[in-house]
Amino acid sequence: MTHDPQKNRRTRGRVTRRILALLTVLALASGTFIPAALAASYTRIGGSGSSWAGNAVNQWVTDIRSQGSTVDYNPSGSSTGRKEFANGLVDFAVSEIPYKGDTADPQDTVFPGFKYSMLPIAAGGTSFMYNLPVNGKRFSELKLTQDALARIFTGKVTRWNDPAIAKTNPGVNLPNQQIRVVVRSEGSGATAQFTLWMKRQFPSYYAELCGKTGGCPNGGATSYFPGQGIANFSAQNGSSGVTTYTANTPYTINYDEYSYALGANFPVAQVGNAAGFFTIPTDTAVAVALTKAKINMDASSPNYLSQDLSAVYTHNDPRVYALSAYTYMLVPAQTRGSFDNSKGAALGNFASYSLCEGQQTMGALGYSPLPMNLVMSAMQQVKKIPGLDSDTGKRLDSTINAAQSSSGNPCNNPTFKPGQDVNNNQLVYTAPFPSGCDAACQAPWRGKNVGYNAGPGAKPGQVAGGSEGPAAAQGPAAAQGPGASGAVPQGNSPAATTKRPTAANKPSVSCNRATGQCTDAKGNVLAAEQAQQYLNDAPEASGPGAKAVPLVLAGNTGWGTSQNLLVVAALFLLLLVLTPPLAARYIRSGRRGKGTDS
User: Where is the PBP domain (predicted)?
Assistant: First the structure.
């Protein structure tokens, strides 16, 4: 049998052209369907700072990789982050406290010699994870007044069966064991916020602690916990360090952001609030508390958008978690050193994502999303970053304009509903009341939303602080000061007892397991506690560790990034299927041609 070499060459040419055509189609599809944000390649940037906010920031770092951006973040502690940022060693920092002012750390000695901006990036609650065996089992219903907490963390209460603990946990066989108090060893924003709370709420306890240890410069709040020399105190490094130590060591209690206890599947203390109810730092409890945060709205101040939490500690809404706060990103407002326009473009993109899409997962992670008015204020700060690219600038403007006009919610931020004022946090409207808070207790607060921040979009004449709620506490009186008798626990749950929806009474709700977010038929985002009831019923993907990820996020319609990626994946699959037989045919044809020519 003979073969025509010319015909073989023609065959090989056709095969080659087909393969090249497929590759061309794939390349065109990649460029056509993948949005510019995904196709863009940003300069690698790095930051350091708060481990309190570490789980949130690292979630955004993971998310942003799909947009062609690499961000490194070291949760080394707020003090280290502030110092490295000031020295130009990192491109951004994350901290709960500013460089200057009455809430700053007096031990800070290095300050930025360049223009910079502070912008809030998330909210959360400092929780008290504990490891307490009772009758051979892990106890998970511990209730503590703020007074008892202050006594524990100043060394005044040292045993688990102390009357200060027993009175709010009646009927519990608390062990006669020493309390092992776990604190942060490095400078941290969590410590700064916690010691500030003690200084303002329990000044005599804090002064005694400072006098005993000598660890409080000028008697002020500090990023370095003043626990030196106290026998039952143990210092561990970072949020992960205190969490791991507590999880592995019986009779311990620590302080840190709720996200860490949630991730470790350990309980946190239910803390008594000013209304006498015991709560944990859910996204809604934090949102309600922070309606009383006073935000610095002086745009000329270096502490613009910083927080004063004095009124948060004493807010008497029964749903409040008192130790709630915002965390901040520090970003350059000018080029300096190695921070050039290309890094500015990358940082602007990262900060923009964190403030927008990044807020969707905060509740599920153990934080609370930023209210939309603060998102808008923070976005204006992002626009000061040098080198901000036009695409990021357009996204920022589009989001601000949509929220300001109340025409849309491009970020799907669960705190905001189109048609509503940006100063109204939807999580406050939907926040459940604690067990034991009856109709009379709920009446002064139900449907109320106390404003606090006159950011972009605020109505003329609004000022920070907002209106006051009812002056009288609506629950059992909470004794929070030194020597007070304490509050009586109300019920067994830190949140309202809500009946699980049945087929007969369940409204139409759609849930996204990937974000932990649920929306009702009207597009309202449900609070995390309410959403959990529906998430338990949402269909799961099969296989170990599988997650059901919707193709379009709630609130989005039309062709999206997920569909684009599916098209590209399908084309890759087509190439994988067609290339081997075509290549084999090409090779066989070549071999036959060579055999004929020889």
Answer: 39-356
